[in-house]
Amino acid sequence: MTREAPSEENVNEASESGDTEDGNSQNGEIEENLPEEVYSRDERGTIIVNNSDYAIRVKATSHARQTRYSLQDHLYNIWVEQKDRGPAPYIIDIEEGLEKALVAVLNHLKNSYPSQNNYQLYVTIVDNSITSGLNSGNYSIKTPSDKIARWMMAMLYNYLKSNQTMQLNNSFKIQIKVLSIPHTNDLVRSRRHFRTHFYH
Q: How far apart are the C-alpha atoms of 129 and 127, rounded to whole Å?
């Protein structure tokens, strides 16, 4: 693997880490918009990538720790289900599948939200071995999906260069958090307030 990290080109200014704990299923929009003829789904989520070794699923979940906007913001978990009982695969060996799954979910999210609104999203790679997760910073939902996925996989690859023996476990997942319009508007007002009072 020779992927290099691109220069950071996040299109927005604010940065906020995503929640890192699951709750019960709350929002099913992404699963309802994934076509049945391409993806299969059950109570554990929708399968995005499927091969002989593992399946990658996505499931809408509730916010376990967030209180404000917990019913308005949407949280989606992408996770990997190993099919056999052998040794867990190394994360570096399933990175291609992770990138494919992330692009697929982001593409469907674009079609699930009204195009006239500039929704913001955050992507976080979570694992017990990664302190605070690997966070994307915020992107517009209109940002090309492959750009976001490449940036996240480059971050993961750079982390794995010094942690090449990191294996898949139950704590590993990719989270996508889509902010509601009220939440986004509040962030914009907060940034303007900060600039007005601290930079003038």
A: 5
Tokens encoding 184: 């986004």
Pick the most confident of 43-47, 54-58, 84-88, 184-188.
54-58
CA-CA distance, 183 to 68, in Å (whole number)? Answer: 9
- In angstroms, the CA 58 to CA 78 distance is 4
**Ramachandran angles phi, psi of 189, nearest 5°:** -65, -40
CA distances from 31 to 28, 35, 47, 77, 101 (A): 5, 8, 9, 12, 13
| pTM for the predicted model, two decimal places | 0.71
Q: Where are the domains of the chain?
A: 29-198
Alpha-carbon gap, residue 17 to 176, rounded angstroms: 11
Look at residue 197 in the predicted model and tell me its pLDDT: 45
Whether the Cβ atoms of residue 79 and residue 56 lie closer than 8 Å to each other: yes
Q: How many CB atoms lie within 10 A of CB 24?
A: 7
With contact defined as beta carbons under 8 Å apart, do 140 and 118 qualify?
yes
